[in-house]
Predict the 3D structure of the following.
Amino acid sequence: MKLTRLSAAVAAAAIAPAVLFASPASAADGAQPPANSAPDKASETKSETKGDEASKSAAKQDEDNRFAILRMLDGKAGRGLEREANKALNGTAEDRRHFLEVGQYKARLEDDRVRVLKIMDKGGRCVKEAGSKALDGGADAIKEFLEKGQYAAQQTDDEIRATQIHSVGGPAVKEAAEKALRGTYEDVKHFLETGQYEARKKDEAAEEAAKKKPAEDKKDAEKPSTGDGHKKDADRDGTKPAQDGGKSSVKAASVKDAKDAKDAPATASAKGGEMASTGADASVPWALGGGAAAVAAGAGMVVLARRRRAAEQG
């Protein structure tokens, strides 16, 4: 027991000075105010300032994005682009950012595909083939078709059309088509838009004139001859052309022979001759009618016979 108490006393005596020396320092430390209280307030103020600036910057950026989207809706936008742009405008700032970075290009591709399909619907065989190939090729092929390919294909189709019109057209149409095909593409376009119709009118006018010509020639052939040429010939040789099929000549001969026949009995009587054996009386006139040719022939024979008898009797 004594040894234990002694050890305890020795230990207490050993640590007593340390406690005594340490106490004033601890008291002094406790009397000082915290050194870091002021710097903590400054940090909080700086953090709040930075947060406000970031918010303002984000709001400004979103406003710029909104204006950029609105500029796309200028009346020329396709349906796809217009639809997606309105979705972004009515959505969040993130929706607008995503539209500008990704969405607008997908929407434009959709609209371009629709444009290609419309061009194919109105185009010829070459345009349809080129458009179909572009649709299968992707975004770059579609862009190339819209910017260049469609026009080259259209030119080929127009030249084929001009050649087809040439093959079935009239002389004027063929001539105009050949001239256009030997010229520039603008010449081919002018022929298809205007030239072919002007040339066709010329062909129709020529065809109509060709139809009228045979009728006019036939009409001219059916006109009676004036007989001027025959009259001149008659003046030269003292004869009169028979314009009425010889009837005038026959009639004239009949009248002359009838007159001679009438005068013949008087002549024969003055010479003491007798009447002709025909028994015809001088007072009976000759009838001139429908049988003019037969009458004239008979009268001529009678006159000749009477003259011979009168000569013999004389």
